[in-house]
Specification:
Elements (H helix, E strand, L loop, with lengths): L10 E4 L5 H11 L3 E6 L1 H5 L11 E5 L5 H13 L2 E4 L5 H5 L3 H7 L4 E6 L14 H8 L19 H25 L3 E6 H6 L3 H10 L17 E5 L5 E5 L3 H10 L15 H12 L7
Parallel strand pairs: 1-2, 1-4, 2-3, 4-5, 5-6
Antiparallel strand pairs: 7-8
Helix pairs in contact: 1-7
Length: about 290
């Protein structure tokens, strides 16, 4: 636990597991909050204890199915500012440690639940992982090569950003609101809903052009030469982001094709320009 930071004096009781919730409480702990991580020995035994996201925290195990465990939980909850949980909807009610129960002993509590699909709706009871939330949100369909199956990212976008980061934002907003009103609140984080929030650019172009974006075939995903990835002579790859025409102009002049400057979005010659750029980048190694 850090003894300084913007959240010094804030206590978090974290019941979450694996990545989304622990990532959120890691952010809070990194900024000075006291985080008490209530862990499950099964995850440790399975080798799923990611120590990187458990830094700066205090650790304990607790059996919430026993009266003694619940008594300890409520003793901690009375003095906490934030409670976090990541069980399926309804589990905390069965255990008797839900928001309304905690609110009775601590009216100022901020209680954050992180789930795949939220506390309501037809999917609320479904199990899932990162790739499921990205799939349902439509994000996964835009990742990968054209005319090939969607590619699963090598990082957990929904867990970390849609879940952990959104939860941290919600908690910080709730703390600010409590400073003004003196009241706590309940926060419902859906990782699927959060993933839908990653789609403003595809939606913008859909509304602008009336064409649904396709995998590796829209403005910011491989359709044009100015925003693309290219293989180099040593089998590595370089990313090019020349959205602004002045940067695209510099690239064209560097390769001796200034005539391409005004063809940045040209459709009839799009493949010609792409083929040219691929050939040019393939002539040199990444370091050159």
């Amino acid at each position: 636990m850090l003894n300084k930071g913007a959240l010094k004096g804030i206590t978090v009781l974290d019941l979450s597991r694996l990545l989304p919730g622990p990532y959120c409480s890691m952010i809070l702990a990194d900024h000075g909050a006291r985080v008490i991580a209530v862990e499950d020995k099964r995850f440790i035994a399975d080798g799923l204890f990611m120590d990187l996201v458990y830094r700066n925290k205090e650790h304990m195990t607790l059996n919430l199915k026993t009266e003694e465990g619940k008594e300890i939980f409520f003793h901690l909850a009375r003095e906490a500012d934030i409670v976090m949980e990541q069980f399926r909807p309804g589990v905390v009610h069965k255990l008797g440690v839900d928001y309304e129960s905690v609110k009775k002993v601590n009216p100022e509590i901020i209680y954050c639940s992180i789930t795949g699909y939220g506390q309501t709706g037809p999917y609320r009871d479904r199990a899932g992982h990162d790739v499921n939330y990205l799939s349902i949100a439509g994000v996964l369909d835009l990742i990968g090569e054209k005319d090939r199956p969607p590619s699963i990212p090598g990082i957990q976008i929904a867990d970390i950003a849609s879940g952990g980061m959104n939860a941290a934002i919600g908690i910080l907003l709730a703390l600010q609101a409590r400073n003004s009103t003196g009241k706590g609140q309940y926060i419902d984080i859906s990782m699927t809903d959060g993933s839908v929030g990653f789609m403003p650019v595809p939606l913008f172009y859909y509304k602008l052009l009336g064409i649904a974006p396709e995998r590796s075939d829209f403005m910011l995903s491989h359709r044009y030469a100015f925003y693309n990835t290219y293989e180099t002579a040593d089998g590595r790859y370089i990313s090019i982001n020349a959205v602004e025409n002045r940067f695209w102009k510099n690239l064209c002049e560097t390769f001796g094709v200034p005539e391409y400057t005004e063809l940045q979005y040209d459709e009839p010659r799009r493949e010609e320009i792409l083929d040219f750029m691929r050939a040019e980048f393939k002539k040199k190694t990444l370091s050159q």
